[in-house]
Amino acid sequence: MGRLLAPLMEDKAAPGTTGFSTTAPRRGWWVTKEDDGAVHIKVSMPGLGKEHVKVCAEQNILVVKGEGEKDPEEDAAPLRYICRINLPADAFKMDKIKAEMKNGVLRVTVPKLKEEERKDVFQIKVE
């Protein structure tokens, strides 16, 4: 898990959610990877297509939601997923987040601000 995200993540399971466990060491249905340029989040949402998934950034929170359609032949509730990830807005380019849904897996890329671009980092001239 990334340095910036480790203490910032919060999971919520909606009723009827499958494949999710709050005690799973890798959060069950999503994993993160961090490199110098971005944080990459991979969310497993089997049974859902891109038309069932919504991703938005609300202030400093990345919200991932997915809800499948109820099968009229089955009595089960539709598949539902929700995940909220706190992202410090002063460390990421919130307006440059990209998301792609393919084969039941959502991949979200959250670009980082370079140190010189951050408004909360001040370079001090040494005299």
Automatic annotation (TrEMBL):
<dbReference type="InterPro" id="IPR008978">
    <property type="entry name" value="HSP20-like_chaperone"/>
</dbReference>
<dbReference type="GO" id="GO:0009408">
    <property type="term" value="P:response to heat"/>
</dbReference>
<dbReference type="InterPro" id="IPR044656">
    <property type="entry name" value="HSP14.7/HSP23.5/HSP23.6-like"/>
</dbReference>
<comment type="similarity">
    <text>Belongs to the small heat shock protein (HSP20) family.</text>
</comment>
<protein>
    <recommendedName>
        <fullName>SHSP domain-containing protein</fullName>
    </recommendedName>
</protein>
<feature type="domain" description="SHSP">
    <location>
        <begin position="18"/>
        <end position="127"/>
    </location>
</feature>
<dbReference type="InterPro" id="IPR002068">
    <property type="entry name" value="A-crystallin/Hsp20_dom"/>
</dbReference>
<dbReference type="Pfam" id="PF00011">
    <property type="entry name" value="HSP20"/>
</dbReference>
